[in-house]
Design goal:
heterodimer, A: about 450 residues, mainly alpha, 20 helices, B: about 400 residues, alpha+beta, two-stranded antiparallel sheet, globular
Chain lengths: ~450, ~400
């Protein structure tokens, strides 16, 4: 305090450093005060919530872990040990194979595993960096893979058409993985690599497809010869069951409902009255009735509708019903996206001279689908949950398998444990899907936040 | 892309003109679609009639008047095994409507409660509510129904050791169902009901008048409390004056089961509870999104006008939030009606169970029965969406 003299010019105003915030408003204590005990009412609510959490968690923990029986050969053994105070997980682990594969014979289970392994590998390039033509790979997985997988699962005699399709599937699989590896290693797509390697690079563009076709044909012939040696036994769809059937039905439902929904949505917005009326009638009819009535309709009416010599198996009827139902819902989801695209986009596309289909596939659909990703994934989750309804018409999907355990004489009356296990399984599947859609929403800037 | 002069020049084959000329193209496509639909319809029709002939069955609704020989475990309109299929249809419809109506009321209340909890400033409460929503909406409804039915209501005690809900010896819960007192109206009870109706109308008129007067003069009138007083007080007075003509028949244990009173079977309870808990998740999300959709500026503007927090909530936030909440809420109610058909899985006799399953198996008239059931659901759905459109028109932003 020696420089009170105002005339000394080298001294300017020096503020004191600000005090730290009061210790009880920052850090963990501050957070707790602000979020849990900001008022007497809030403090009371916090204690009530804590009590609820404690009751739920401690009871569940005691039942599911502490008192649980992990190994036993019948429900009676479990009951003798702990009564109803602990879970009898032995009943779940004993039937685990049936929950996943149904009654598929043990020595053939590798076919189911192989099929789903192939499908996962086929879709894998989608998540790899630097890979181009992802749409083509995805489309081949949806359109061509089912022939290969269907034959793996069902087995039996294969006609010429099925042989050709299986060979095409093997060829596409090899091509898409060659392409993926090349893209990752060299950054060049398969097409360019083949053209350069065959020395066609200098020739006119129109001739470039010949070497590619030649390679495709060569691989195709190899695949054809390879697969003609396959002999796998036929497995009736009655033996299919469990999670396997759930995934087959919902997978086909997802693969069919998205394209069908897009076409129905376009039809509903079409300027042609006949097409519009047909689409509106289809969508509104199947959206206003419950899925179970559609399933009953498929089971009771499809045999009447078809000529007497065609006798579709039950799983096909259920798949038809699920596809019809989910397409109608998907159509409304896609229509929501289409309506959100501003008119300027359509007009700009038309001004550039694009045809209707080019305008839709290059300008409108990419924006609309991106915007609707959360809703589309929501529909997929709904579809996965809705496949449980096929158990009502007697298909042994995961839910009916879980329920059927209690009818086994040794495990008579065991309901809670299989159902809890199934609930956990469904929860994990749906929760992963919904979290992944939120992740997509963030990375693609989709949804309402991106607009 | 080359610009082609379409139309005027008549070059090329007639087919390419049809496909390439915009004027003819759409007609051409429509004819193709129309022909395809007609062909599919004809194909299905001819197959069906041939199949029916082979099975020796006749189409038509004549079977509706014949006797349905089965009994139905629960019905709110009187039903006996000798009644007609048409009556079975009505029993199914009333059961479906009863279940859906009760579930809709309960799920809406629970959904609003959870939605508000999710917005709580208390972190713990908000987390609890959000886990409730995440866990229950990611599990299939059918699995939840089976869980309640098989794992909860199936292990309830027998009637002899019934759970005495609320401890009043009036509500009894056991593995045969839930028993509660039934009202037995006396001779003059209709007078109370008429009075109630009249007082509701009077209260409504007072509310309209009060609003008009406030708009005109600014003077306020406590219309709400007046209405409560009129609606509760006047009928109560009438009830007491006529000598309390209402008695309750309380269920009592006789032999192996309760008699007297009313009851609902365990299947009803399982479906009801599962529907309420499952759909409340979706309603909670709608309520949360609706309230968050009202921008904070509205609250601030309302405070700066001097409105108290309570009034701000009632006059500014809720009316705007409701505009976002009501349309999805109503379509969720529609989903409750549709999902009540899952009652078939636990044997509650709703429309699908008694008509689409039992009646169809017995009579074999698949097409007629499927059409009738779908007709019912479509009627409900179309009337709900008509109501929704009316509401949307009512609350639409009136831009000036």
């Amino acid at each position: 305090m020696t420089h009170l003299d105002a005339s000394s010019s080298d001294v300017s105003f020096q503020p004191k450093p600000s005090l730290p915030p009061p210790p009880n408003t920052v850090g963990a204590i501050g957070w707790v005060r602000k979020n849990l005990f900001s008022s007497p009412l809030n403090a009371f609510l916090t204690f009530v919530s804590l009590y609820v959490i404690w009751v739920v968690v401690s009871n569940t923990f005691e039942w599911a872990i502490v008192n649980a029986v992990w190994e036993a050969n019948s429900r009676r053994e479990c009951l003798d040990k702990v009564g109803l105070s602990g879970a009898c997980w032995a009943g779940v682990s004993h039937w685990m194979k049936n929950f996943i594969y149904g009654r598929y014979p043990d020595e053939e289970i590798w076919r189911v595993n192989l099929g789903f392994g192939i499908l996962i590998l086929w879709m894998l390039p989608f998540w790899l960096p630097r890979v181009t033509s992802k749409i083509t790979i995805g489309a081949s997985a949806i359109l061509i893979a089912p022939f290969l997988l269907g034959h793996l699962f069902a087995g039996g005699e294969k006609g010429l058409f099925l042989q050709v399709m299986i060979s095409v599937a093997i060829t596409s699989f090899i091509f898409s993985w060659l392409h993926t590896l090349l893209c990752i290693a060299t950054g060049k797509p398969l097409w360019t690599t083949i053209v350069t390697a065959s020395g066609f690079a200098a020739k006119p563009d129109a001739t470039h497809k010949y070497p590619v076709l030649a390679v495709f044909l060569a691989v195709f012939i190899g695949a054809f010869i390879y697969q003609s040696g396959w002999e796998i036994t036929a497995q009736s769809t009655n033996l299919w069951g469990g999670l396997f059937v759930t995934l087959v039905i919902s997978g086909i439902g997802i693969a069919v409902s998205l394209p069908a929904g897009i076409i129905l949505a376009l039809g509903r917005r079409s300027k042609m009255p006949v097409i519009r009326v047909v689409c509106v009638a289809f969508i509104e009819l199947f959206r206003s009735v419950p899925l179970i009535t559609v399933l009953f309709m498929a089971v009771t009416m499809v045999p009447l509708f078809l000529p007497a010599e065609i006798n579709p198996v039950k799983i096909v009827q259920a798949i038809i019903a699920v596809c019809i139902f989910s397409s109608a819902y998907m159509a409304e989801t896609v229509r929501g996206g289409l309506q959100a695209i501003s008119k300027g986009q359509y007009e700009a596309a038309q001004a550039l001279g694009l045809s209707y289909w080019k305008m839709m596939s290059l300008i409108v659909m990419p924006q609309a689908l991106k915007m609707m990703i959360p809703n589309i994934v929501g529909s997929f989750i709904g579809l996965l949950k809705d496949t449980t309804l096929v158990s009502i018409v007697g298909l042994y999907d995961l839910l009916l398998m879980l329920k059927a355990v209690s009818q086994n004489p040794q495990w008579n009356g065991i309901h809670t444990e299989p159902l809890v296990f199934g609930a956990a399984l469904y929860f994990v599947l749906c929760f992963i899907m919904s979290k992944y859609s939120q992740h997509l929403e963030r990375t693609l800037g989709a949804g309402a936040a991106g607009r | 892309m080359a610009v082609v002069d379409r139309g005027a020049s008549g070059q090329g084959s007639s087919f390419s003109v049809i496909v390439n000329d915009e004027r003819y193209r759409s007609i051409f496509y429509q004819i193709i679609v129309f022909a395809a639909v007609m062909w599919v319809g004809w194909y299905l029709f001819s197959n069906t009639s041939q199949n029916l002939e082979e099975r020796g069955m006749s189409a038509g609704f004549g079977f509706l008047s014949s006797t349905a020989g089965f009994s139905i475990s629960f019905s709110i309109i009187p039903y006996e095994a000798g009644d007609s299929y048409l009556w079975v249809y009505l029993v199914g419809i009333t059961n479906t409507l009863l279940l859906s109506f009760l579930a809709i009321v309960a799920t809406t209340l629970l959904g609003f409660f959870i939605g508000i909890l999710r917005l709580s400033k208390n972190w713990m409460v908000a987390q609890l509510a959000s886990w409730y929503v995440e866990i229950l909406r990611n599990t299939p409804l059918l699995l939840q129904i089976l869980f309640w039915y098989l794992a909860v209501f199936a292990i309830l005690p027998r009637p002899k050791n019934s759970l005495d809900v609320l401890g009043l010896e009036v509500f009894q819960l056991n593995n045969r169902g839930f028993y509660f007192p039934a009202p037995l109206p006396g001779d003059l009870f209709w007078l109370t009901m008429v009075t109630l109706l009249v007082s509701v109308i009077v209260a409504y008129c007072i509310a309209v008048w009060a609003k008009k007067r406030q708009n005109a003069t600014g003077q306020r009138f406590p219309a709400f409390w007046t209405a409560v007083g009129i609606i509760i007080g006047v009928p109560l007075l009438m009830f007491l004056v006529t000598g309390s003509p209402l008695q309750w028949e309380i269920p009592v244990l006789k032999g192996f089961n309760f008699s007297g009173g009313s009851s609902v079977p365990p299947a009803f309870l399982a479906v009801f509870i599962a529907l309420v808990i499952y759909h409340a998740c979706f309603i909670a999300e709608m309520v949360r999104a609706g309230i968050l959709s009202v921008s904070h500026g509205q609250t601030e503007a309302s405070y700066s006008l001097g409105l108290k927090p309570g009034l701000t909530l009632r006059l500014v936030i809720i009316p705007q939030a409701m505009r976002a909440i009501v349309p999805p809420l109503i379509s969720n109610w529609m989903n409750v009606v549709k999902n009540s058909s899952l009652a078939i899985a636990v044997g509650f006799p709703d429309l699908v169970a008694v008509f689409m399953q039992t009646s169809l198996n017995q009579s074999g008239h698949a097409i007629e029965i499927v059409a009738m059931v779908m007709f019912f659901y479509m009627t409900v759905s179309l009337s709900i969406s008509a109501a929704l459109n009316y509401y949307n028109k009512l609350v639409q932003l009136k831009e000036r």
